[in-house]
């Protein structure tokens, strides 16, 4: 039930003192092969953290042998010294494993603009190497714990296929946004797959999972999703099967992120149907997911469909402004852009809320997931730096 | 100090029972001429309220003789019956004044998706006509009160020029967003001005005032800014002078809206300098103004410049991600995208906060104003429908 479920992987999660609580904060995932093909996607933010700047170079040749991750500091906007720390971490992992640093992906998460103590991180890497594969279940569960920040629970997944499997772990609890939530994700598989196929499958999987999670509209600087394939099963799945398995794993982890979003009282699935194109459907759903007024209304259990229409009207999608239908939890409270069923019959108290919009402009559809805007969100993001 | 300060205008504000509190809720502003030239700008939302659909037709010929406004109901997403109510209101005003309904702008504000009782609104129009110009200062202050919704204070302005003046009133306290805040604004002037010159001057004025107010990123469905020129002063100002006076009036009213934004603890002026173009400066400033994480940090008096850089990175503006400078309240906490002055020296307790970003890409600059994200904002927008 972790990144070490597929054959060919060892992992570890240890405490290096980066977190003031003394909790685990350095994780290492190693691909023992025989294959080392890999693919990654990163945040589309232009102001990137140092580990992303490093890892973008690492992944270019499709070969990754290890991923080292730390919480307790994002190493973002920390200047050349911060980049040197990232480089030193990759070198240290490489030295231990007898490989090249250019095959080591580095991920960091935590406070932006604050440099970690380099010696402290490197000591954590040493400890993680010593612990590789020694803990329960090959160390995967420890690694999942070591990447947590404001997460209240570790997030892991396994998808079993015929003779091969996909394992995964994720961190992320706020700043979930378009073009990836603020999150680090490592996926492993013992399938035999080329780097090119992994890239195709991973992009297809993230496009309909992490890319459609929009917790608070804020885009992170450190987001990284990396998949490692060991080939240890000896089985070569078809590209559709590989894509299905990765999509399943990414969607499961995305829903775990959504359920653990900072301060949220509701998980909201916004589905737009009848769109002229899938892009239109995503644009409309995302505009609703980003309306603070709509999100505050859901927090207040108020089925305020007017705020939904006001958001739709800000988009460039194809629709007739006088002929929009909106349902909340299955009840069509708005038909033809005017009141329909009594909103008083919509019960928004359950944690899961659905909003359905019919644009009546075509056959395409898409779902975007978000959370409500709550007092606890404001509290978590005003009382604590991150 | 109101819309009736310039010569040639009468106004009224009365209670018609649309507000459950019994407060004033119908306002009427009449231009007694000799000229009736006018210009207007409206929300760019595609899902428009009925009064906007009506008024867009009214203003086309550059002649407006009266503006009738109601609070207690936005008449938005209320279908054909709602449009019929708007039309009936314009006809009733026209009948009283002996003019055509096509010269009567109608504005409504309040709850979306709820139809007002037509007879109640029309009775309010009758009462407002009877009260025209009879109250203190020609009725302007009463009109300003009658358009309030969640506003805690009425908003009025007068700009005096040599022999002529501009008066104005505004309502708006939330949903302040790009391409106009949620607000109704009536401006009056006794200057002699053609409709074309008024249009040019008004668009120049709103572009740098209301269009740069972004309280919560949510765009309204009812926003209207109308300027009426009576020509009663007999003075024809130059276009630059007219533009200056309208810009002064609009900026003053915009700052009153900002200061009264729902639940805000801070007013934040985000100034981007060193931009390649003014559009770049606005895009960057607006991206920061829309970051819930940044706004929550300001509420918590946390000078979190990392969240500023993370927002800048989401834009397409010209800049070097490794060479951005950020100041908060004049202290440069970030230089070259890395920590500079100690953020602990920034005191964010005062209500007014400034953020300055230097993109080092050119000479253009722009300021966008926003508020912090507070518990009170969440409370106002979750506990009450609007």
Helix content of chain A: 25-40%
Instruction: Return the CATH topology of the largest domain in chain A.
Output: L-amino peptidase D-ALA esterase/amidase
Q: Which two chains touch over the largest interface?
A: A-B, 62 and 61 residues
The number of distinct helices of chain A, counting runs of at least 4 residues, comes to 10
What is the arithmetic mean of pLDDT of chain A?
A: 92
Oligomer state equals: homodimer
Walkthrough of the structure:
The structure is a homodimer of 386-residue chains. In chain A, the strands form 3 sheets. A 6-stranded mixed sheet of chain A has the order 13-12-11-14-10-15. Chain A has helices spanning 50-58, 79-97, 118-131, 140-146, 195-207, 239-259, 278-289, 292-299, 305-312, 375-383; strands at residues 9-14, 26-31, 37-42, 66-70, 104-108, 155-160, 165-171, 184-189, 224-229, 267-275, 325-328, 331-335, 338-339, 352-358, 364-371. In chain A, helix 1 packs across helix 2 (79-97) and helix 7 crosses helix 9 (305-312). The longest helix of chain A is centred in the middle third of the chain and has 21 residues, at 239-259. Helix content of chain A is 31%, strand content 23%. Chain A has 386 residues and is of the alpha+beta class. The first copy, chain A, has 10 helices and 15 strands. Chain A has 2 domains: 9-259, L-amino peptidase D-ALA esterase/amidase (4-Layer Sandwich); 267-383, Ubiquitin-like (UB roll). At the A-B interface, helix 8, helix 9, strand 13 and helix 10 of A face helix 8, helix 9, strand 13 and helix 10 of B.
